[in-house]
Amino acid sequence: MTGERLKRSKSNMAESPATGNLLKILLSPPMNRKGKRLSPINAVPALNDTGLGYIAAACKKAGVDVTLLSWNANLDIESFQCKLLELRPDIVGLKVFTTMFRETYETLHCVRETLPSAITIIGGPHPSTSYPEDLFIEFDGLLDFAFAGDGENGVVELVDQIRVAGGKPERQKIADVPGLIYKYGNEVISNQPDLEAELDTLAPMDWSIQQPAWFGTNHGLDNVSIGALIMDSRGCPGRCSYCLSHKINGSKPRHRSLNLLCAEIDELVHKYGVRVLVFTGNAFLSDVDYVRELCQWLIVFGTPLKWTCTGAAYGRNLRDPKLLELMRRAGCTLIHFGIESGNPNVRECLCQPISLEECTEIVNLTTEARIHAACYFMFGFPDETVREMNDTIKYALSLPAYSISFATCLPLPGTSSYRAVLERQGIDRIDWSAYNFRNPKLLPCKASPGQVHRKIFEMRLLRKFSFARGLYRFIY
After folding, report:
1. Could you tell me the pTM of the whole model?
2. pLDDT number for residue 476
């Protein structure tokens, strides 16, 4: 969408024709299932959501009455229904992860029952990676629109057309809304997603909508502090078969200017008392000069901050001890490394951009620089065997990591695991409403689901008991 079109959309957006008041939009993650808290597989700490935050900021700047329920709202369905009746939004938008499918379904069902005329929209990883046709099968009758890719500009355009139409707009009015997925008659239409917008053109995060929360020691801290997730960049050129970040945020690394990033950090520190930051972009380390300038600014900033980032596809840039030393002096306490497998053959199938030897070197250098290394692994990749899983455990235990975490590689939409499950089961799609994310039975590996679960259990014991780690190394 051209800048002129976006300007017109924002200037047009004002009052709802039905009510004479400003259009109201409620943005939220899915709610807890009735009578239950989120299960461990879905558990999310009480942090801000940068994706929803930027969409909320864009809508507010365009003149919409925005309410954002972030992850720390921790509402169940009944409480959410009360919130719907209190706010009576014209539009309800949900951020959807596949692992929270059932929570999403129940939340959308609650919206339909409570406010039948409200327009429902979903965005996030699940609609960005799923086949568009599947979305309207999965959420039959509950879903009006979905967005793939970056949603800020597209949501503003769509909401403007909803205001003009006094409800769902006609097809021709939304034919060019970037990333929009919708159904017209029996046809599902998927517009080209917006994955290259310059980040400085987005409305700046409005922290009054969702204020920073408390961080715990899982971020490599000795005690809790007020912290915030902060977007430094988007995009990842990697084509790792288990990850579809390039479909969600694009392949091209895009950074915010340091001027805007540092101004936001200053606001978070002096207005909200933030002392911990998590830089969320997979492209954080893609530009070494950018990182150096940011670190130099943080060193002279005046308020000591602790922060974390991810190595992602750019871990090789950490082979420079001087860069790591500068990052530590600037407050970096922990770097996340998604190593995933300790078996070279499996890693080759996963299209991992960095070799195991390089991973070992990078983790060692990070630790020597007195920065914690958090290393992540998974079991259950396509055709993976028990022997290859044992290789991963042995490799993980050889690293001087601050923490090692293991999870099951779920067959999420669009991944090689998803395609392998469809082929082996002879099915067109996975029914997420019946999928048990805590104890999955549909996995693409040669090992049985029971063997995968046992390996996860083994790692829990090995992490807990140091003598068990020594015994494991001896046996294998």
Report:
1. 0.89
2. 58
Largest CA distance in the chain: 73
DSSP SS3 for 419: helix
Residue partners of 164: CB distance under 8 A and separation at least 6: 12, 173
Residue 158 structure tokens: 């769509």
The residue count of the chain comes to 476
Half-sphere exposure at residue 83, Cβ-oriented, CA atoms within 13 angstroms: 21
| Burial zone of 344 (CB within 10 Å; 0-12 exposed, 13-18 middle, 19+ buried) | middle
Angle at 374 between CA 369 and CA 377, to 5 degrees: 140
95 closest CA partner among 47, 60, 55, 136: 55
- Given a contact cutoff of 8 angstroms between Cβ atoms, the answer to whether 420 and 412 are in contact is no
Q: How many CB atoms lie within 10 A of CB 178?
A: 23
H-assigned helices in 242-343: 245-249, 258-272, 288-301, 321-329
CB-CB contact of 240 with 339 (8 Å): no
Looking at residue 100, its amino acid is: M
| C-alpha distances out from residue 165 to 24, 149, 160, Å | 15, 25, 9
The pLDDT value given to residue 13: 43
* H-helix segments, 401-443: 416-425
Q: Are 70 and 48 in contact (CB under 8 A)?
A: yes
Which structure tokens are listed for 17? 């024709």
Cβ-based neighbours of 318, under 8 Å, separated by 6 or more:
285, 311, 324, 335, 362, 365, 366
Type of residue found at 113: E
**Residue whose structure tokens are 């005046």:** 302
Could you tell me the domains of the chain?
3-190 (3.40.50.280), 213-475 (3.20.20.70)
**Range name among 42-56, 83-97, 100-114 with the lowest pLDDT average:** 42-56
Q: What is the pLDDT of residues 310-358, one digit of tens each?
A: 998 899 999 999 999 999 999 999 999 999 999 999 999 988 889 999 9
The one-letter code for the residue type at 263 is: A
Please name which of 252, 132, 139 lies closest in space to residue 180, comparing C-alpha atoms. Answer: 132
**Count of Cβ atoms closer than 10 Å to residue 19 Cβ:** 12
Contact status, residue 152 vs residue 203, Cβ threshold 8 Å: yes
Sequence-separated (6 or more) residues with CB below 8 Å from residue 347: 340, 341, 355, 356
pLDDT tens per residue, range 419-476:
999 999 999 999 999 999 989 999 999 999 999 999 998 888 877 766 555 666 665 5
Closest CA to 375 of 343, 344, 342: 342
Is 246 within 8 Å of 146 (Cβ atoms)?
A: no
Question: pLDDT for 237-250, tens place per residue?
Answer: 877 888 888 889 98
For residues 222 and 229, what is the distance between their CA atoms, to the nearest angstrom? Answer: 18
